[in-house]
Structure formats: structure tokens, C-alpha cells
Amino acid sequence: xxxxxHRLYLTEEQMPKQWYNLRADMKELPDPMxxxxxxxxxxxEDLYPIFCKQLAHQEMDGTTRYIDIPEEIQxxxxxxxxxxxxxxxNLEKALGTPAKIxxxxxxxxxxxxxxxxxxxxxxxxxxxxxxxxxxxxxxxxQWGTALAEACSYYNLPLTVYMVKCSYEQKPFRxxxxxxxxxxxxxxPSSTTNAGRKILEKDPNTTGSLGCAISEAVEKAVTxxxxxxxxxxVLNQVxxxxxxxxxxxxxxxxxxxxxxxxxxxxxGGGSNLGGLIAPFMQDKLTGKASPRIIAVEPASCPxxxxxxxxxxxxxxxxxxxxxxxxxxxxxxxxxxxxxxxxRYHGMSPILSKLYHDGYMEAVSVEQTKVFEAATLFAKxxxxxxxxxxSHAIRAAIDEALKCKETGEAKTILFGLTGTGYFDMNAYSxxxxxxxxxxxxxxxxxxxxxxxxxxxxxIQ
Length: 458
Ligand SMILES: Cc1ncc(COP(=O)(O)O)c(C=O)c1O
Prior knowledge:
Elements lengths: L6 E2 L9 E3 L32 H8 L5 E3 L2 H7 L7 E3 L1 H7 L4 E6 L10 H13 L4 E6 L3 H12 L4 E6 H6 L1 H9 L3 E5 L5 H9 L7 H13 L4 E3 L6 H20 L6 E5 L4 H15 L6 E7 L4 H4 L1 E6 L8 E6 L21 H8 L4 E5 L1 H15 L5 H20 L4 E6 L7 H8 L10 H8 L10
Parallel strand pairs: 5-15, 6-7, 6-9, 7-8, 10-11, 10-15, 11-14
Antiparallel strand pairs: 1-4, 2-3, 4-5, 12-13
Helix pairs in contact: 1-10, 2-4, 3-14, 4-5, 5-7, 8-9, 10-11, 14-15
């Protein structure tokens, strides 16, 4: 029996030098993105006005299995990676479970999350192309912070549209984004047509990732030398995040371990897609059959209660149409405390894998999530982000099932980030004012009714 350390760090030399493109091993690829005006598949060139060229190429590349990580990005990664694979010995003990619980901790950088893995790649390719500024949206603020860090490293001006309810819940996000020279705007705002339209309809809206995306895309296409970058959902982002899974798999191999269950929270799907990538490869190629579980908030249940349909990626209906599990781009989830999980859609790659039966999904209510978060914090000394705590909840539930059955399953989950900017959320849990809001079937039906009508398709 190998002695299992509490924390396993790979060496710099053991870090992956290539990202893994999950699409190359999928039996069927996700359906193509469609141009919303013509309903024809979008080409790589069609994406150039929105995305920088290399990223548009990665977005459309469904066949290259491994893609070299440019050396500059590898060097940047080394400032905060490899991230540790941690064995949750104390949590296991507290639960009294025979399960072996591992987690990959991505919160050990200033952005506080896995988002920096893709932010630095996107800023690098933008700089390489000679672009002069970038725009983006952010929900919880981690992505905006990560991109501000990456842009300041490359001296690229950045405008961040932050979902209004998160902007108000987390004033220090503004300060940190500004520390890295980012310009931050609460969304919806009156600075764009998309924002003004949304505000006209509902002046008191708390905003959503979908609204913020509309504003950022509009800014990109109306500003010379500016492009839009996105921290989740897209194929290119899942590609960059594959570093999480590749490192995890190498570390587990060193311990002679292999997960029976892999669990990740799912907002737009980037951490989950990255964590599961090499394990899903094993599943797709018949080498192993781990259970893979996506965990989403009950207030924004795109996989568990959504439709698999073509939809806009944003509320303002300006982006291409993607086929994905969606609650309808007009759906505005209740203002819960996991801003990074308040997105109406889901990565088309993960949506396809879920649709084809390769993964499962569960939804959890936020009070149950914070119960898990506080238990985890006390046992493992890491204060988890509310988003990450969705995965903790599901990992604990699986470990408790093992306690009942006596099975010593190996569970791996993604601990995507820290929750230091989410203390309002922790306070509301601790003082008993936190509530759970779950959309009714009628509310969901109303949003489904607004899905785009595409002749011959839907
Ligand atoms: C800490 C953290 N975890 C998870 C997510 C969810 O995003 P994704 O589904 O793209 O991993 C976010 C998004 O902001 C986040 O900040």
C-alpha cells in the first residue's frame, strides 16, 4: 500500500505541455453553432469579428486531439501551478465514510479560481494578434479578476461587465479588478444598446451572465482592435481547462488511484469539462467507466430541468446560436450567492455528452450547499467559493451513500476556488436569512416559449 500524502504537487517538469481536446474522442461532435440571421453553420472566419483568430480556430477544431501549450503560457502557469491534489482525510473522518475523497484545488492564485488557466491563454493569443483591448463579462467576479490579471500582464486594456447583483454583493471585486487596471461596469448598464434595452424592460433587474455577455459582445464589435473573451461555455475554454484534469490524472496515477466518481460544479461547464477531460477520454475509448456528475444550483438548473435546444448564448440575442441544455436565454435566475453558476445555458460539449448518457447531473439548494461549505471549511481549512461548494455537497452526499453501503469508493471533485469575497453569503447562511428559490415549471415554460424558432430544426 502506498502512503498517501495529504497534498500531492507534481513537479514543474511533470506539468502537461499540451492541452487535451475532448472533441477528438467524442463519438459524435456537438451540433455546429448557427448564424442567427441565416441559420447556417458558423465558419471560423465568421467568428473573427468577435474572437481573436487563434481562439476562433480552437473553437472550431473538433479533431486535433492534443494542442501544444505555448511556452509563454506554460511559464505563466508555473507561477501558480501545478495545483495540489488533496486527500480529504479530515472530511472523510468527520463523515465516518469508507470513501476516499480527493479534490483538486484551483483557488491558489489571486483570482481565487481556475479561471486564470484560460484567461492567460486568451490574453496571450490576443496580444500575439496585435489586438489593442478586450472585453468580457463576469458573474461571481473570479473570471473578471483572472482576466484583469492576465491583461495587465500583457498590458491590454480591459472592460469587464459584472452581473449587477454580484457587483453589489462583492464591492471588493471592483477594487481588485481595478488594482489590475481593469475597467468594471455593473450590468445591465446604460453604456450599451443591449443594456439599455434590458433596463427598459425591467429597470430593477439584478442582471445575469446572459445580459453581461450581450453588453461585452456589443462593446467588442463596436470598438476598433477590441475582441470579446469568455470565461466558460466555449470549446476553447474547456480546452484550456483540460490542464486541471490532466494534472489530476497524473497525480492519481502516482498514487495508484483512479476515481470511481468525478464531480464538478457546473455554471457554463469550464471547470467540469476540464476536470473530467482525461477521465471522459477513458470512458469514450472504453478504458474505464467512472461516473461523472455535474452539480448545478436548484435555482438555475440548466441540465436537470432545461431543454436540449438551439439558443442564444446571451440575453440580448446577439451571439451565434449553440445547441445546448438551456433554460432559455430570457431566463433570469433568482439572485443566489453562486454568481458563477447563474447562467441559462451549458457548454455544448458537456450538453452533448450529457444528452448521449456519458454523464449525470444533480441540482442542489443553496442552504444545503452552505451546510457542506462550512463543514468542509472546518475540516479542511479552506474557505470554499459558493460555486465550488456545490461540488462539495455532491461529494459529501456520495461519501455518505458509501457509508451506508460500506463501499470504499474513490471520489474526485473539483474545488474550483476560495470564497473570501463571498462573506455576505456566508453571513446570510450563518444568521439564518438565506433562502432557497427554485423556479416553478410555469416560469421555465415561459422562458422555453421564447427559444428561437429555426425552420426545419426547432
Ligand atoms: C469559483 C468558481 N467555480 C465555478 C465557476 C463556474 O464556472 P464554470 O462552470 O465555467 O467552471 C465559477 C464561475 O464564475 C467560479 O468562479
